[in-house]
Fold this protein.
Amino acid sequence: MNIHEYQAKQLFEEFGIPCPKGSATSSSQEFSSCIDSLGEGLIVVKSQIHAGGRGKGTFTDGFQGGVKLAKTKDEAVEYATRMLNNTLVTIQTGPAGREVKTIYFTEGADIEKEYYLAILMDRATSRPVVVASTEGGVDIETVAHETPERIFKEVVDPAIGLQAYQARKIAFALGFEGKQAVACAKLIFNLYKMFWEKDCDMVEVNPLISTKDGGVSALDAKVGFDGNALYRRPDITAMRDLDEEDPKEVEASKYNLNYIALDGNIACLVNGAGLAMATMDIIHHVGGSAANFLDVGGGATAEQVTAAFKIILSDPKVEGILVNIFGGIMQCDVIARGVIEAAKAVELDKPLVVRLEGTNVEQGKKLLAESGIEITSADSLADAAKKIVDIVAAK
Amino acid sequence: MSVLVNTDTRVVFTGITGKSGGFHARQCIEYGTKVVAGVTPGKGGQKFDDTVPVFNTVADSVQKEGANTACVFVPPPFAADSILECLDAGIELIIAITEGIPVRDMAIVKRRLLETNSRLIGPNCPGVITPGQCKIGIMPGYIHKPGTVGIVSRSGTLTYEAVWQVTSLGYGQSTCIGIGGDPINGTSHTDAIKLFNEDPDTEAIVMIGEIGGDAEEKAAAYIKEHVKKPVAGFIAGTTAPPGRRMGHAGAIVSGGSGTAEAKIAAMEAAGIVVAKTPSDMGAALLEVWGK
């Protein structure tokens, strides 16, 4: 789960991580009071959407830049007015863009130099790792590729946590000296504390800056959380912004379905994440394109299958449906009943190909055949993919 | 012969009195697995299905029933604790089925594992089966058949698909290992491949992977160096969009790493025959095996 920059900065303040003073609002009436709460000087006006690349983004009405630097209060209000409720398209949003519903004002920073800092769970070592670089404000993947010597990593033993010397090591590697090195180490130490205590799966500060008055500050913040740990983080769960998520994905999560919208026209309903991915792959292999990834899980009920059908059919791009179930513990006759109920409940008018394999497969196939619903039955995964792609192409 | 589990395996189910733990324990018992104990704190002294003794602690099940393998079925908030308890009780093999354990908890478990001689399979996995001998987990027993093909996979139903293809072609499996779809797991593809490579009764190997991480690349490097047995493979997620987590917490392409293309290339470079589609896993095995 991701949160907005202004929410991340609230957490930073809670954990004693220095960042420019800021104030957020969703109402144009509060622009003035937000700006007044900041100190004198430059004001940064930031569109709050989850996607990156905001600074270089363009609004659908042609207004340039989702992050703007204003010299005066009037200028800041003008920028904010143009941004609020406008749709911002960035490299990460796709062509549809995202509607900006919150504006975050921050004090301008006196930047001396930009750095990169992140903490994430490293799969290779199964431990948290602090990653830092002298190259901030740029794409870290490019730095890793072109100048790997400018990236520093410190692996943390999860049993004892980040040690002070490790935080200092990073600070010195970045070239900090004296009191500024102490300040940087403290920032890294506190950032790790937040990463661990809030069950983050990633925190990224890009850029981290050194200021001309000898301080360090987190200029931007990107924070993601482990969805599996949200049950014990009600404060974090409260920060979830459903407007930033696909409504179909939100609906799916209510039924414990794992749904991801894609661009194709063939909807799929599969049990198991690996098989669901493989089903998308094989649809592509035979010349089609999947409209979604949908894993109904290991113990789907008729109610879940019905909900799944409703969700995939709410996508107007869908022209055909492929159901692929390898019934293990989940029995094929139960799934068949679910499919029939769902097809009737939603008055299905799109072609449907069903491939069932596994426990009670014969009863399942019999139920489908006798249901009176127009269903094309398939014997293997390849057969099923080919059939649905052919049927949709022939329409 | 086989790896990890056989007729000598004595299983304790943690979470046996729960709905899904009980259901799957029953299925394993029906298959012939020696389920010697269950553990539910506070329910010690009861009997599961009037036959399997339930204990308050894993240590009791080891002491009184000689349990040497655990199947962890407790809900996610308590699963890491259950695994740690198994480690403390000296259980040699722990198979964690639970899906949804916080990654932070698993980082601690993985750290603790280093201090023990135990092996963890999973979490978020279908389990381990040696056909005809011992089934620990949630896989449907009947699709398997005793034989000489070792199968390792992160995904449950995709493993069933591979098993079913192999069985339908007339071949059986030595052991099938589901290592799970989480970013931190106890046993990697490489670990499983090592076990199969050293098992005299495993003649051929099927390795199924998916996008995310670099476990398949590492396994391919190991195979290139050490494995003479024929290996077939498949990678799911060729068409998955980057930056999206495809169901499994571990299945995500980020920053250009973990792509299906890179994994397939590494596997082919190691002499593995990689199936073009999930329907061709059996055929890929026959091709590399020369059958």
Summary: Residues 10-121 of chain B form a domain with the Rossmann fold fold (CATH 3.40.50.720).
